[in-house]
Amino acid sequence: EEFPQAVGSPAYEMHHKAMTERVPVQFEAVSPILHRWIDVSVYPDTRGGLSCYFRDVDDRKRDEEQFRQLTHALDQATVFVRELDGSIRVWSAGCERLFAFSRAEATGKRVHELLSAEASVSRDSIQAEFLSTGTWHGELNLRKRDGSVIVCECDWILHRPSDDAEPVVIESCTDITEQKRTQEQLRSANEELRRF
Q: Shortest CA distance to 9 belongs to which of 38, 39, 30?
């Protein structure tokens, strides 16, 4: 054996499989020499040996890990992704906590039906503004699973994943019900003070 320290390792097993079964194999591993992620493709050759091709994929693996961490962090936020017709594609854990609908219950449903969205302006005018600018910010009254209504400050962003993909809407909601209630109490208290 040329590399006795490699015997029994996953890389050794893949090379051994290519050699004994005479089939091509592909795998990714951290190189013990370079200390970087590499993509390895191993092909049996016609002389009974192996041809090996290595490609550095360390940057991609690092990007994937950062994306995984970001996705996990975003999942804690009250963010969901929907199609232009309102059909929910992604429902975060934050949405589950705020609205009390599970991912399974929300995914595929139309957001305006699920949450009975109500605004001070018509849905058509909101949609027209949103489609012309690609963003929208405003307040919506949204219904939770238990039927209670909360006031949410919402931000919508139109996202086109690629040129040939249908655009989606990334929507975030912040419950401002208590803030609105406090503002109303302060307004009422100020009116009472003015009367005296």
A: 30
